[in-house]
Amino acid sequence: MRNGFIYLIRGGQLLILDKKAQVNSLKQDYIKHVAHSLAQKEAEQQRYEVQESAIADWDVLNEDQIDQIKRTGHVVAGRRVYYIVGNKLNSFKRIELNDMERVTTPAAQDVHWQKAREIVDLAFTYAHLEERTIPSNTIYGHNRKLGKGLDLIGDLELAQLAVEGEASAISDNDWWGIGMMA
Q: Can you tell which superkingdom this protein's organism belongs to (predicted)?
């Protein structure tokens, strides 16, 4: 920081930012990161569900393919590889070396961008309420009383839990608010 401005090189371009512009730039980076993380998590969940439903029906194979699977334990039909586990027919997609699907990361869709904006806006709201410029990080501590583990959840993680309905904002009904905790 010099003369009240921040000089930053991003993508080969010199950016000159004031504090507000820096926070907005950081917010955009957070949104981009969260949107791509949400897309990646969704893709991993879909892959897991596909693997769980990998049990195939015998009627997809013809007589020659059934004979081959009995001899070798597997058969390729179309773009799938079929194999037997126990008495069940399972399958998975055959990957070619030029199949880019396996090396590309999933693209964030509108739903991911919308949810990411909601999460990041809420995280920055939490930070603003605590009179901080940017959201706090989750701190994994070494508190001897609590043992090793989570000591303090960060604003971004709290916002994500709140958006997903797994946490709620602090209210007058919490233990601290009614004076039950010191």
A: Bacteria
Judge residue 123's burial from the number of C-beta atoms within 10 Å of its C-beta, 0-12 exposed, 13-18 middle, 19 or more buried.
buried
Q: Is residue 78 one of the residues assigned to a domain?
A: yes
| pLDDT for the residue numbered 125 | 92
Task: Note whether residue 52 is domain-resident.
Answer: yes
User: What is the pLDDT at residue 91?
Assistant: 78
Q: What is the pLDDT of residue 179?
A: 56
Which of 61, 49, 58 lies closest to 88, judged by CA? 58
174 inside domain = no
Q: Is residue 172 part of a domain?
A: no
Q: Are 84 and 69 in contact (CB under 8 A)?
A: yes
Q: Following CA atoms 164, 165, 170, 174 in sequence, which dihedral angle do they give, to the nearest 10 degrees?
A: -150
Q: Confidence class of residue 28 from pLDDT cuts 50, 70 and 90?
A: very high
Q: For the chain, what is the domain count?
A: 1
pTM exceeding the 0.70 threshold for the entire prediction: no
Nearest to 106 by CA among 44, 30, 31, 33: 44
Range of the domain at 120: 20-163
The region, left, alpha or beta by phi > 0 then psi within -120 to 50, assigned to residue 68 is alpha
* Residue 12, token pair as written in the block: 């080969």
